[in-house]
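User: Fold this; tokens only.

Assistant: Input:
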Amino acid sequence: ESPLRLVFVDGVFAAALSATSGLPGGVRLESLGGVLDSDGDLLASQLGRHALVERNPFTALSTAFMRDGALVYVPRGVVVEQAVHLLFVTTAAAEGCVMHPRNLVIIDREAAATVVETHVALQPSRHFTNAVTEMVVEDGARGRYYRVQRESDGAFHMATSQSRQGRDSTLTSLSVAFGAGLSRHDVGGVLDGTGGELGLNGLSVLSGRQHVDYHTTVDHARPHCESRELFNGIFQDRARGVFSGRILVRPGAQQTDSKQTNNNVLLSGDARADSQPQLEIYADDVKCTHGATIGPLDPNALFYLQARGVPAAEARHVLTYGFAADVLSHIDLPDMRERLDRLVRARLAA
């Protein structure tokens, strides 16, 4: 586990469990609640400027009830080699509670950082999490943002992740949903500088009566930008997944290169997936594609494996796992990739 971490228990910052020593000069990793009291100037220019209250009622709720969360600030030209972990833990004491964790990540010009945001339940409880993360990646900066949702099956989980990128910047984002009975994640990225690159990836592995919604918006506001989007879902029992993906190419955003893919595997007759890919293009010199698949495992692939001596159950497991690994391969942290790999295998085996 990375020593750089902020830990929040039932929505409240736990300084004793956090570790921020060894940060490069000028880097800030602090509780947002503390910064709200002491340094409003840094926050005033960015906080609430990207995840807009008029766009989403849950973001408006978050802004109204903002109390705590994380501030990650990386100054110009600084590269943070270690991943920064933001860990949100719920216990049995969260029963019946509503939590509004709010995060602000600012990666200044030519800087680089990796942020891992994890929501996990230690004990089962019925609670409501409404998490909002705003991420600013300035000119020439490089950001990686990985998000893992493993709340208890009785929980409700609403999330918004909104990014804005400057010129020649790169952001790779990946969201994994394993938990919560009902969850929704709105993922938005604005490419606001020429030459920006954005990768949005997501994986859902659900069972029982779990439901997940992914709503993504990639806003190509400037020319010569590239975006790649891959969201895969694996649904067992009576689980359901919804994907609604929108690519917006604004007037003048010529030479846009954007690709969106959503694939869903239904492992039972009662599982369901809905996909709604959308392109909204107001420029004429662009390359935009989208595609979606929904259905059971490919019978030809199953036959191919079985014809080579692989038992039927194992063949299904291999194909399903490969479907998940396709997304997990986008994670550049080997330890994290292996941990999620084990979690996926365990969930599929169960």
